[in-house]
């Protein structure tokens, strides 16, 4: 492209509508027209509005200036790129990451609003953002070869790579400051780097597949845990309902047993009470007769009549006191504390619900004392035997005898008796 065409393009595309000169720090307006930053500030100051609004000099559209000032208006990178391509303006700036002023800024991160050099752009892409950032190139076309210029020797280009220092160097540097370092041609290093990056790409793709597979497996495990939780809760609820149902059934059964036993015992006691009431009536008759005899005259006929009555009264007493009946008391003793305890055995937890209480049957034999006429209880079964004199001693002797027999049996089975016999014989 000749100079005349470049001039025409500059006049058509790179000329500010306010200062009529080439754009200096071009900023794009909401109406998509572009003005220099200084021109925007001067138009805002000259605007009769509130200081935040002005009319576009080209389309007369109302433009609102950001609260932070005109500096917050976006840069027109399209104009900047044209200036770079036409070599009319070289973008100048300092890297906002490393702040090295001797390196030309070649990239801009729109998400972070930062100017970044070619040395910091890769780390910024990998580490700063969780997702791929929006990054634009702002380097000029004429500065493309300046990246290979040696910083120590301006007239030399970097043709070698120093492995020791991990940087590109020129031939002069390899003979001076990098004399004893490991070097190789820059093209060879680039080929190795290309192969390394391709290998890493393949590895990361494979690793990504593995990680995605692991994520799927974790989702399945999560689903399995959720399903197991739902099934366990449902089964626990069912077991609790069945346990409550079983307890209620047992409650009805035991209520029937207790009530039936109580009714039978009441009938036996009521049968004994008939003889008791009949005997009591005769005693009252005798008492009333003797009181009347004390108030009236004594006669032999009355004494003879009382003697006959007394003999009949003795027969009634013998009949009443000789009567015996059995008594069975069903007692339910509730537990003071009902709890749930668990036992861990081979990674299995066994849960047991504590007992509600104990139902006991106390069996008695009821007899009447001939002297006091009072009912006396006698325990039946094993508890009754234990109350007999000497029964406890006999039971203890039986237990000791059985333990002795058990020791002899174990000794014969294990050979200890033979060993003891041989030792004693020696």
UniProtKB/TrEMBL annotation:
Could you give a GO molecular-function term held by this entry? zinc ion binding
UniProt cross-references to Pfam families, sorted A to Z:
zf-B_box, zf-RING_UBOX
Q: Does the keyword Zinc-finger apply?
A: yes
Q: Which UniProt keywords apply?
A: Membrane, Metal-binding, Transmembrane, Transmembrane helix, Zinc, Zinc-finger
Q: Where is the B box-type domain?
A: 145-186
Q: Which residue ranges run through the membrane?
A: 393-411
Q: Which residues form the RING-type domain?
A: 16-60
Q: Which GO terms describe its cellular component?
A: nucleoplasm
Q: Which InterPro entries match?
A: TRIM45/56/19-like (IPR047153), Znf-RING_euk (IPR027370), Znf_B-box (IPR000315), Znf_RING (IPR001841), Znf_RING/FYVE/PHD (IPR013083), Znf_RING_CS (IPR017907)
The name on file for this protein is Uncharacterized protein
| Taxonomic lineage from the root | Eukaryota, Metazoa, Spiralia, Lophotrochozoa, Mollusca
């Amino acid at each position: 492209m000749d100079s005349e065409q470049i001039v025409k393009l500059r006049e058509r595309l790179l000329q500010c509508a306010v200062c009529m000169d080439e754009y200096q720090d071009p900023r794009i307006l909401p109406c998509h027209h572009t003005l220099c930053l200084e021109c925007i500030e001067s138009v805002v100051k000259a605007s009769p509005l509130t200081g935040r609004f002005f009319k576009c000099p080209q389309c007369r559209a109302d433009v609102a200036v950001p609260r932070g000032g005109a500096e917050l208006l976006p840069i027109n990178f399209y104009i900047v790129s044209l200036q770079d391509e036409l070599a009319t303006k070289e973008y100048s700036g300092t890297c906002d990451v490393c702040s090295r002023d001797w390196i030309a800024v070649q990239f801009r991160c729109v998400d972070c609003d930062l100017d970044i050099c070619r040395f910091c752009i890769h780390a910024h892409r990998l580490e700063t953002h969780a997702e791929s950032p929006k990054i634009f190139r702002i380097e000029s076309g004429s500065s493309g070869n300046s990246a290979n210029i040696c910083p120590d020797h301006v007239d030399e280009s970097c043709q070698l790579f120093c492995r020791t220092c991990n940087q590109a160097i020129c031939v002069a540097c390899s003979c001076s400051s990098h004399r004893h370092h490991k070097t190789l041609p820059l093209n060879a290093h680039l080929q190795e780097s290309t192969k390394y990056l391709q290998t890493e790409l393949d590895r990361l793709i494979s690793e990504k597949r593995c990680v995605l597979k692991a994520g799927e497996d974790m989702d399945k495990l999560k689903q399995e845990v959720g399903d197991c939780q739902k099934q366990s809760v449902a089964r626990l609820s069912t077991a609790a309902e069945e346990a409550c149902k079983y307890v209620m059934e047992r409650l009805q059964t035991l209520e029937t047993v207790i009530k039936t036993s109580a009714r039978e015992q009441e009938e036996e006691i009521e049968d004994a009470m008939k003889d008791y009431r009949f005997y009591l009536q005769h005693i009252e008759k005798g008492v009333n007769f003797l009181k009347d005899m004390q108030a009236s005259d004594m006669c032999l006929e009355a004494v003879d009549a009382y003697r006959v009555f007394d003999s009949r009264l003795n027969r009634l007493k013998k009949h009443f006191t000789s009567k015996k009946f059995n008594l069975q008391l069903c007692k339910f003793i509730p537990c003071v504390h009902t709890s749930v305890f668990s036992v861990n055995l081979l990674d299995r937890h066994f849960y047991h619900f504590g007992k509600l209480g104990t139902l006991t049957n106390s069996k008695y034999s009821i007899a009447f004392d001939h002297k006091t006429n009072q009912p006396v209880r006698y325990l039946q079964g094993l508890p009754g035997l234990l109350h007999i004199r000497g029964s406890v001693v006999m039971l203890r002797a039986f237990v000791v005898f059985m333990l002795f027999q058990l020791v002899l049996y174990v000794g014969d089975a294990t050979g200890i008796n033979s060993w003891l016999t041989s030792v004693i014989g020696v």
